[in-house]
Design brief:
- This protein is of the alpha/beta class.
- It contains 12 helices and 9 strands.
- Helix 11 (229-235) packs across helix 12 (251-262).
- It is elongated.
- The relative contact order is 0.11.
């Protein structure tokens, strides 16, 4: 039985898969690429001669040291021994430039990493990400409104990026084999806030309220969040059924409802003095 790595890593060993993941980034010859969790360098070794600059962020100190030794012939590669959640990603990307991201995301911090990437996309600092994650999480990110997997994470992701599911890998593609299947997604970042006529922070709060309780209708969730029945009746778009749940509603009508609920009241008409 293979020895379990100290941080619970599962290293990609499928040669065809590692080339397919690297290829999914496209032409990186003039690009900066940030790799999350490079491990033994299965993908790093492919990207090193392809990228203008490659920054590999590895939490395991022994693996970081191993990578520095392996990649010493590539001056364009920087290996950081760091926690991705406590790394100044913004500072790694020079002003006026953008970067691409690639990596195998640990299940327990997938959402936190995605939120970091979404913030970079709003600042126009990243263009594309190719990410491997647990299949069930990937299904949620790529889900369309109206299917069971669609939820807050789906809506938030699709507000920031076009999501493409590339392929799924079995446990046997890794050593040691995990207990789950893994899916590779490509995210092409294109935040939609301006297009939808909404601001990020208040609309994010609104979405959290909409999806607060999955079993409740959208209207009931919003009443719980403090909107009155009269407010909802006045703002409710005809494109949203009265008893709809949030997971059935595309972003466009959701944004229309938000805009109607947050629009300033019309001033009362003034009458000239007699």
């Amino acid at each position: 039985m293979p020895r379990k790595p100290p941080l619970g890593q599962h290293f990609l060993t499928d040669d065809r898969a590692r080339h397919a993941i690297a290829d999914a980034l496209g032409d990186t010859s003039a690009r900066t690429v940030i790799e999350i969790g490079p491990g033994h360098g299965a993908i790093t070794n492919i990207l090193a001669p392809r990228c203008r600059r490659l920054i590999a962020i590895e939490l395991d100190p022994a693996l970081a040291a191993e990578l520095r030794l392996k990649l010493r012939a590539h001056p364009n590669v920087e290996v950081l021994h760091a926690d991705i959640l406590h790394t100044d990603l913004e500072g790694l990307i020079p002003q006026s430039e953008t970067a691409d991201v690639i990596g195998n995301l640990p299940y327990y911090i997938t959402s936190e990493i995605l939120l970091r990437l979404f913030a970079l996309s709003r600042a126009n600092q990243i263009t594309r990400a190719v990410l491997m994650m647990q299949r069930e999480v990937a299904d949620r990110l790529a889900a369309a409104p109206g299917v069971r997997d669609y939820g807050l994470l789906s809506a938030t992701t699709q507000l920031h990026a076009r999501v493409e599911s590339l392929f799924t890998l079995p446990p046997t593609a890794f050593s040691p084999p995990p207990a789950v299947y893994s899916t590779v997604l490509r995210l092409d970042f294109a935040p939609r806030f301006t297009e939808l006529g909404v601001d990020h922070t208040p609309f994010d709060r609104f979405l959290h309220a909409c999806f607060a309780q999955k079993r409740k209708t959208l209207a009931n969730n919003l009443r719980t969040a403090g909107y009155s029945a009269d407010q909802l009746a006045a703002a409710w778009p005809s494109s949203i059924p009265a008893q709809a749940r949030a997971e059935s509603i595309p972003l466009e009508p959701m944004a229309a409802l938000y805009r109607a609920l947050t629009a300033p009241p019309h001033p009362a008409p003034s009458h000239p003095p007699e």
